[in-house]
Amino acid sequence: MNAASTLTLSNGVKIPQLGLGVYKVEEADTKETVMTALELGYRHIDTASFYENEKEVGEAIRESEVPREEIFITTKVWNDEQGYAETLIAFERSLEKLQLDYIDLYLIHWPVPGKFQDTWRALEDLYKHGRVRAIGVCNFQEHHLDQLLETAEITPVVDQVEFHPRLYQKELVDYCAKKDIKVEAWAPLGRARYFDSPVLQSLSEKHKKTPAQIIIRWELQHGIITIPKSTKRKRQKENMEVFDFELSPEDMNEMDEMNRNERQSKHPDDFPYDES
């Protein structure tokens, strides 16, 4: 396994399990950050219209020596762009900024009440017309997915949610597994807020790896797609060096038991949709 190792989505499309997220990467830094990642071997880049750096991601892809077909690009429709017609317009805007012919994975960013079902219809049409290779959602809990599937023709292939050892959403992971939906982790390192925890420190010493590498390995072994963010070459390289060791079942259980249902961001039911 390496950074180009893939999982197969329910529609047959392969997605690199380890990628680079660019949330809160400044526009001025995005191009170099993405080009460095591609040079190191990353083949999965995750952006969004809300991040306001799609243009720079696209520039990095075009100027990289890596062929476009080898790079998996995700972007997302933001909350104030949702609704059927609005989403189709938002997609064209993202595509123009990225300067790409297609998107590999297009996601609904948050389950905006009263809108996400119409938004999903737009994603289904984009998929049917070959504009995107796969479609999915972000921040959907089980009840959101239940509601979506009442009217959806196509089941999302991915649900990207906040996921890390202190927010091990096991019930959601099990639900998604039954529906053949892959779970993808954002804030996969818990924003580095508990690297000093005894469990992580102990496993770091045991495996001679950093707390970040231990967490990424835990996520990979759970079958989670993970997209840690870093603008620094050294850290990007370190985040990739997780394929030369394995956590034992006991190690995995210790990590699982770190869960506190502790979020770094809003619960999807409490998100201030009126303000976005």
UniProtKB/TrEMBL annotation:
Keyword NADP: yes
Gene Ontology terms for molecular function: oxidoreductase activity, acting on the CH-OH group of donors, NAD or NADP as acceptor
Annotated residues for binding of substrate: H109
InterPro entries membership: AKR (IPR020471), Aldo/ket_reductase_CS (IPR018170), NAD(P)_OxRdtase_dom_sf (IPR036812), NADP_OxRdtase_dom (IPR023210)
Location of region: Disordered: 238-276
Pfam families associated with the record: Aldo_ket_red (PF00248)
Domain annotation NADP-dependent oxidoreductase: ranges: 23-259
Active site: Y51 (proton donor)
Keywords: NADP, Oxidoreductase
Acidic residues: bias regions: 241-256
Biased composition (Basic and acidic residues): 257-270
Record site: Lowers pKa of active site Tyr: K76
PANTHER family, per database record: 2,5-DIKETO-D-GLUCONIC ACID REDUCTASE (PTHR43827), NADP-DEPENDENT OXIDOREDUCTASE DOMAIN-CONTAINING PROTEIN (PTHR43827:SF3)
Family to which the UniProt record says this protein belongs: Belongs to the aldo/keto reductase family.
Record's protein name: Aldo/keto reductase
